[in-house]
Structures are given as C-alpha cells and as structure tokens.
C-alpha cells in the first residue's frame, strides 16, 4: 500500500516537472527567436511561463543551457528531416545535382511552414541568429554535436559539385545555407533601411521560387 502511494506521488511529480519544462521551453523559444539570447530577460520569460527563476535553474542550470536546449529541441527534428530528404534524393538519382540537395532542404522548410507555421519561423530565426558573431560560442557547441551531419552534407555537395575544390565547396555551402535560413526567417532586414517593403518575405512558396535558382546559381558557378 505504501509503495503504491509512493509511486503515485512520484508519477504526479514527474508529470508536473514535464509540464513545467514544456512551459519553460515554449516561452523561451519565443523570446529567443524574437529578441535573441542577449536581449531576452529571464524575469520576463519566467513571468510569462508562470514559473519562478529557481525552476529554470533546477531544470536547465543556466540561461546558456536553456538556450541550447531550445535550439536542440527545434533543430534536431529539422536536421533529421533534411538528412532523410537529401538521402532520398540521392537514392532516386544516379547523379545527384546541387539543385536536388537545395530542393531537399527547401522542401523541409516548406513542410514546416505548412504543418508548423509558427514553428517554421522559430526554427529559421533561431538558426539565422547563430550565424552572427556574438553567437559564436553556441555555434561551436552545436557544431561539435552535428559535426558528422555537416560532414555528410558536405560530402554530398562535393559529389554534386565535382568541378570545385573542397574549400570552395565548404564556403559555398556555408553561404547557401545561410542565405536559405535568412530568406525563410522573414526578418525583414531591408525594412530597417528602406522606406517601403520591397518584397513579401512572409510567403514561403514565393520565397522558395526566388531563392532556389539564386542559391543553385551561386553553388554551381565556375
């Protein structure tokens, strides 16, 4: 009887912990995506999540660890889908082209946009922020975990671009992926510089139509 009661209590506590963690992660990813890591206030975040700061430290240890947890939560399934999609493209064709790999990536972005509209924006905004210099430490920590993934994608691009040396492929892949992430993030950077809206970057299908040929042309240039 006593053991049963203990198990019931422990199970209830576990469920409460899971709900608390989920509330923190959902609120944190919104703040980090919109405001960035450095401008995010932990006091504001915990108030909106309806938890105290102690709960964040208990479950995640620090603001740094919370940011990394948010990144991994969103990036891991996205990366898995991209890899699977690229692998399928390669298996379907004897000679893979750069356009196939780019389209495989874009297809996942479009899938996220259709199925997880807000989630798609959060993923691309979070990743695009990692490209900034001030996020170098976080970028390096994630790179250590995804080094095998990056090397696999690099290998596929090398196969698709046999006329280029390895260093050139690395640079072009970096620029291509950065361009894709920023294009789908819809950050409207030009709004800060222009008096009017130049393009509608909110429509994922339209973004894909213009960005794919642009990126492919850059990758395949002599």
TrEMBL record:
Gene3D superfamilies: Tetracycline Repressor, domain 2. Residues 41-60 bind DNA. PROSITE patterns: HTH_TETR_1 (PS01081), HTH_TETR_2 (PS50977). Keywords: DNA-binding, Repressor, Transcription, Transcription regulation. Transmembrane segments: none annotated. InterPro entries: DNA-bd_HTH_TetR-type_CS, Homeodomain-like_sf, HTH-type_TetR-like_transc_reg, HTH_TetR, PsrA_TetR_C, Tet_transcr_reg_TetR-rel_C_sf. Signal peptide: none annotated. Residues 18-78 form the HTH tetR-type domain. This is TetR/AcrR family transcriptional regulator. It comes from Vitreoscilla stercoraria.
């Amino acid at each position: 009887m006593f053991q049963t009661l203990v198990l019931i209590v422990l199970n209830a506590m576990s469920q409460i912990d899971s709900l608390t963690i989920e509330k923190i992660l959902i609120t944190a990813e919104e703040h980090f995506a919109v405001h960035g890591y450095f401008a995010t206030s932990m006091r504001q975040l915990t108030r909106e999540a309806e938890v105290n700061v102690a709960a964040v430290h208990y479950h995640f240890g620090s603001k740094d660890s919370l940011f990394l947890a948010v990144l991994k939560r969103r990036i891991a399934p996205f990366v898995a889908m991209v890899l699977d999609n690229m692998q399928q493209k390669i298996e379907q064709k004897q000679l893979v082209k750069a356009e196939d790999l780019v389209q495989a990536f874009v297809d996942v972005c479009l899938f996220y946009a259709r199925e997880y509209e807000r989630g798609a924006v959060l993923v691309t905004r979070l990743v695009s922020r990692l490209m900034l210099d001030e996020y170098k430490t976080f970028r390096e920590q994630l790179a250590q975990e995804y080094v095998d993934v990056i090397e696999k994608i690099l290998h596929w691009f090398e196969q698709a671009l046999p006329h280029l040396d390895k260093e050139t492929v690395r640079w072009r892949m970096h620029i291509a992926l950065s361009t894709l992430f920023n294009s789908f993030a819809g950050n409207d950077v030009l709004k800060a510089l222009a008096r009017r809206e130049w393009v509608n970057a909110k429509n994922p299908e339209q973004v894909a139509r213009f960005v794919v040929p642009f990126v492919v042309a850059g990758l395949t240039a002599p």
